[in-house]
Amino acid sequence: MSNNTSLSEAYVSLDLETTGLDSATDDIIEIGAVKFVGDEVIDTYQSFVNPTRTLPYRIQVLCGIQQADVDAAPAFPELSETLRSFVQDCTIVGHNVSFDLGFLQSKGCQFTNTTYDTYELATLFLFGQPDYSLATLAARLGLSVPEHRALADAVAAKGLFLALVDRACELDIGTLDDLARLAKRVEWGLEPFFTEVLRAKARTSFTGEVRRTLPDRGEQHLWAKEGERRRDPHAERTLLNVDDLSKILDGDGLLAQTIPDYQRRTGQIRMMKAVAEAFNDGEHLIVEAGTGTGKSIAYLLPAVFFSLQNELPVVISTNTINLQEQLVGKDIPDLLKALELYEDGAVSKLKVVQLKGRSNYLCRMRYEALSLTDRMTLEEARVVARIKVWLLSTRTGDRSELSLYGSELRVWGRVCAQFDDRVESRCLHRQRGTCFLHQARGAAEDAHIIVVNHALLLSDLVAEGRILPSHAHIIIDEAHHLEDEATSQLGFEANQWAVFEYLSRFRRETGGQRPSGLLPAVSDCFRGSSVAGARQRQTRELVEALERLVQAAEAQLSQFFGKLREFVDNHSTDRGGYERHLRLTAATRAQPGWSRVEILWEDLGIVLADIADHIDELYVGLEGLEDNNVTAYDHLMTELPSVLSRGNELRHQIGALVSQPDADNIYWLTAEQETGAVGLHSAPLNVGVVLEKSIFGSAECAILTGATLSIEGTFEYIKGRLGLHNPKEVLLESPFDYLASTMVYLPDDIPDPGRPGYQEAVQGLLIELCQASRGRALALFTSHSALRATQAAIQAPLEKEGILV
């Protein structure tokens, strides 16, 4: 341990190796433990364990443990007391330690010691990691790398734990105290950890900076600095010198001088010239550039100089946030360095901004409101704690820095930026200029290059230009995804879980904890307040009415979706193995059973409308009470509009699908075979009409590029789908010789997907292919159930031949 901390108690770092992941059917094969105080190792314990069974081949390969090692070892009952004696009453630490303790408990060895999971601590103090495995974190921190052996992993977990303690001690005392109070409020097992770190920090009087827990992303995002002048577009257009730009890409040009192993690419130069000419001529352009062309540099180079020379913004849209990150974090900085547009390590001539949709940014007001509520679940508390630590370092408030997954994203949905006039008008952060979303939008107003994704580009279309600054030049990379994204953004998709999730925001019951959610928070809000009794009674009556309405909605919702599932089962001809589809046409709606769907929806819609009216009344009833000591007032005044907006959206969209279809849209239902969940979908019939009017019709120059835009050598299909008329066209082949390097095998003697025998045929083919390739194979599936079934079927026969699945 470094000198930064001085934890005085003894800890035991614990790790097991097992035959598999299921404690009910698998067995322990090795135990490793390290007892330590601070940096000092007091004792170690290691033993193989006899599972009285044959070791799976994959475990032998993964751990390097042979059958002879465990055959000569004692069985677990002979070791359990020795392990108990070693651990005693020490605090136990480990990576995903609940897995190890669960295995021990299933074998009759239960510990009630205080326990800290280094995985959980790492998500708190090492936020933004792409992978939280023990090996990755150990390498990230320069610790001993684990070897899939129990003692080595226990040593690595010890090092990780001490490193995380040091990170915790870099926090200020106020933040640590807030974390300890939060943990106590929700009975989180990390409360003693925060308390002990507070004591250790007080003993050592250490003061440090938490900023090094997160790499400085300021340069990566290249946001305009406070006080810099805004772009001032030139009155007269300066054209690009295409010949000069071509020289930059030559074998002895600027890029060759700065980029190792740079190679001149004829296709890249052709594309760059076409893009530059489109900027100069104010024309639309579509370019297919095969893999390996280097299309990013081909469009970035003219875009950078055109924007600089004319002080005009150029919007670059990609399909994914990952490609956004690559452009902003690597491609653009590399290009700018080569072009010597950096001065003293910082961009001084070109302003580049990566802009994302509002849900990617933290809303400080919503976060602060949630963090102050007494009715918080443990899951919410964990995310609130991570954000509290992250806020000490982040400059952007961008969710991607946090690495949230699964149910954590639902909590993020409660604290991310949303559009609501009533909330924004009350937001002090908006007024003070500390709102992350508006900082990002302000930076975009000043930027030369604005990097977005298709979802945000099309969200701006839906929002009628309220997101992106005014622009006339746009580059759309991965343009083959634009139609699908437009269909998604301009359409609607929801399933029964989404509606139940909306209703759960009113009240959530969590085992062993007080109910949380909007209604319990309102019920508690007047404790100790100075609000008049009549107003309190009126509010309580609204809450009681909402309780009844929500219960009624939940019951009716089950009936409604049950009838929808029945309708899909009775009328769908799609018998696919994963998901069934049913298009809702006039003929479909005339079928027996649909009238019952409409009646059920009408009843449910009335209840949802009543819920919306009561929420609105609650909001109006609480307005103006900020000075009356109302508990969690800010939380209520941000949550009420959010719930109201979500409810109205669901009600209007489902209502249109069921009983008020728009002639310009198509509607369909889906039913998952695995879960039985019913999905409701709508999409515009022709997004090309919308794109033509809102993007291509208003842009002076729109450039579309991608690797797969043409069909049989023409762009006619994609032009028609996207509403793109008379663009210039360039079709570049990939520099890779696919005919010489690639083989494609198509089995033509197996059943179609979903037909009897299909799954068995796939399994048999994979066994043959993997045998032929000696295991050098990757199989991709569209269904988790198919993946699991295939893995179970092919694992044993392939492992007998020494092929690890």
Q: What do these coordinates show?
A:
The chain is an alpha/beta fold and 805 residues long. Helix content is 49%, strand content 12%. The protein is built from 34 helices and 18 strands. A hairpin with a 5-residue loop joins strand 15 and strand 16 (678-684). Helix 16 (364-372) crosses helix 29 and helix 28 (594-622) runs antiparallel to helix 29.
Considering the chains and any ligands shown, give keywords for the structure.
alpha/beta, 805 residues, five-stranded mixed β-sheet, seven-stranded parallel β-sheet, 34 helices
What's the short version?
By secondary structure, the protein is of the alpha/beta class.
Major sheet size, sense and barrel closure: 7 strands, parallel
User: What's the end-to-end separation, in Å?
Assistant: 39 Å
Strands of the biggest beta sheet: in what spatial order?
10-11-7-12-17-6-18
Structural class: alpha/beta
C-alpha-based Rg, rounded: 30 Å
Sheet-strand content, in percent, reads 5-15%
Low-pLDDT segments? 1-5, 206-229
Q: If helices are DSSP runs of H or I spanning 4 or more residues, what is the number of helices?
A: 34
The amount of helix comes to 40-55%
Secondary structure: number of strands:
18
Shape: globular
Mean pLDDT: 88
